[in-house]
Specification:
The chain has about 260 residues and is α/β, with parallel strands linked by helices. It is about 35% helix and about 15% strand. It has a single domain, classed as Alpha-Beta Barrel (TIM Barrel), CATH 3.20.20. The protein has an eight-stranded parallel β-barrel, surrounded by six helices. It has a two-stranded antiparallel ribbon with strand order 9-10. The longest helix is centred in the middle third of the chain and has 16 residues. The two termini are about 25 Å apart. Its main location: cytoplasm.
C-alpha cells in the first residue's frame, strides 16, 4: 500500500460499511488485518486520545499490507492550534504520507468552536501535494464543535474524504441521532461513527447510514507496574494491545 492508495476499503467503493480499527503498533495492525478490519487508524499515545506516530512506525505498519491512515495530532489537549502547531501538522502530514500512510486524520478548531477552515485547507493541500489521491479524515475535533452537523456540511468544500464522529456525545451510540443528521448533511463526505463502540453497538450505528464504523478494540497488555510513575498520565496500568476477538466480532456484526 502506498500513499496513493485512496479508494481501498469498503466505504470508498460503496460496497457495505467499512470497519476501521485504531492501532498503535505494527503488531496491532496485523491483528486487525487478520480479524477482518478494512483499514487501521495508526497513532501513538492512544491513552491520550492519540498522537502522531513516528516515521518508522508508519513505515513498519505500511509493510503489514493493511491501509493505514495516520493520525496527525502534535499534542494532547484541545484543538485550537497556534501558527507553529499548524506548520508542524503540515510537515507531519507530508512525512507520514511519504512513509507509506494511505491517508491522514487531522483537525483544528477556532476559539469560537467553529472549524478552523484556513488550517484545514492547509492540511488538505499538504496531503494532496504528496498524493492527489490521499484520503483526508477530520477527526473528533468535530465533536467539540459548536455545531457538528454544520461542520460536517462544510467538509466537502474543504476537500475532506470523511469525518470520524460520535455525534458530539460521549459515545457514538449516545450520539446516533446527531450522526444520522451529519450523514444527511455531509453529502459526498463519508461519515464514520466512533467512540466507545463495541460489537453490540454496530447495528444501531449502521442504521444511521454511516459509511464506516471505528473502534479501538483494545485490551490491557498485562504489563502494568506498581513502581515510580513515569509521568502525570502514568497510573501504572500498562499499555493496550489490539484484541482480535473484538475486531472479529465487529466484522461479524457488519455481516462478515
Amino acid at each position: 500500500m502506498s500513499a496513493g492508495g485512496a479508494g481501498i476499503g469498503r466505504d470508498a467503493g460503496g460496497a457495505g460499511v467499512a470497519l476501521e480499527v485504531a492501532v498503535t503498533s505494527p503488531a496491532g495492525a496485523v491483528v486487525a488485518r487478520d480479524a477482518g478490519a478494512d483499514r487501521v487508524e495508526l497513532c501513538s499515545g492512544l491513552e491520550l486520545g492519540g498522537l502522531t506516530p513516528s516515521q518508522a512506525l508508519v513505515e513498519m505498519t505500511h509493510e503489514t499490507g493493511i491501509p493505514a491512515h495516520a493520525l496527525v495530532r502534535c499534542r494532547p489537549g484541545g484543538f485550537v492550534l497556534d501558527a507553529t502547531e499548524v506548520e508542524l501538522t503540515e510537515r507531519e502530514v507530508r512525512t507520514v504520507l511519504r512513509s507509506g500512510a494511505a491517508g491522514v486524520v487531522v483537525g483544528a478548531l477556532r476559539p469560537d468552536r467553529t472549524l478552523d477552515e484556513d488550517a484545514l485547507r492547509r492540511f488538505v493541500e499538504a496531503a494532496r501535494s504528496v498524493s492527489a489521491h490521499a484520503e483526508v479524515t477530520l477527526h473528533r475535533a468535530v465533536d467539540h464543535a459548536a455545531d457538528p452537523v454544520a461542520a460536517a456540511a462544510r467538509l466537502a468544500d474543504l476537500g475532506f474524504t470523511r469525518v470520524l464522529t460520535s455525534g458530539g456525545a460521549a459515545s457514538a451510540v449516545a450520539g446516533a441521532g446527531t450522526i444520522a443528521r451529519m450523514v444527511a448533511a455531509a453529502g459526498p463526505v463519508q461519515v464514520m461513527a466512533g467512540a466507545g463502540v463495541t460489537p453490540a453497538d454496530v447495528p444501531a450505528l449502521v442504521a444511521t447510514g454511516v459509511a464506516a464504523v471505528h473502534l479501538s478494540a483494545k485490551r490491557p497488555a498485562g504489563d502494568g507496574h506498581a513502581g515510580v510513575p513515569m509521568g502525570a498520565g502514568d497510573r501504572g496500568d500498562g499499555h493496550f494491545v489490539t484484541d482480535g476477538a473484538v475486531v472479529a466480532a465487529a466484522r461479524a456484526a457488519l455481516g462478515g
